[in-house]
Write a structure and sequence with these properties.
Keywords: Kinase, Transferase. The protein is mainly β. It has one domain: N-terminal domain of TfIIb (Single Sheet), CATH 2.20.25. Helices cover 10% and strands 28% of the residues. It is built from 1 helix and 5 strands, in the order H-E-E-E-E-E. The radius of gyration is 10 Å and the shape is globular.
Length: 61
């Protein structure tokens, strides 16, 4: 994922910054505990498509 795009993308719920998990191909919103998938290089920024992270799984550091 291009770093320039990552700089401008924010969580659609809280408008906070996202962390790129390269291994899982997801964008992680730590405050909302959500992981948005990246499919074919395109981030899917829909709440319905986001994976809910448990309290113990905060995504990649």
């Amino acid at each position: 994922m291009e770093s320039r795009l990552l700089e401008i993308l924010v969580c659609p719920l809280c408008k906070g910054p996202l962390h790129h998990d390269r291994d899982r191909q997801e964008l992680i919103c730590r405050p909302d505990h959500l992981a948005y998938p990246i499919r074919d290089g395109i981030p899917v920024m829909l709440e319905d498509e986001a994976r809910d992270l448990s309290a113990t799984d905060t995504g990649a550091q």
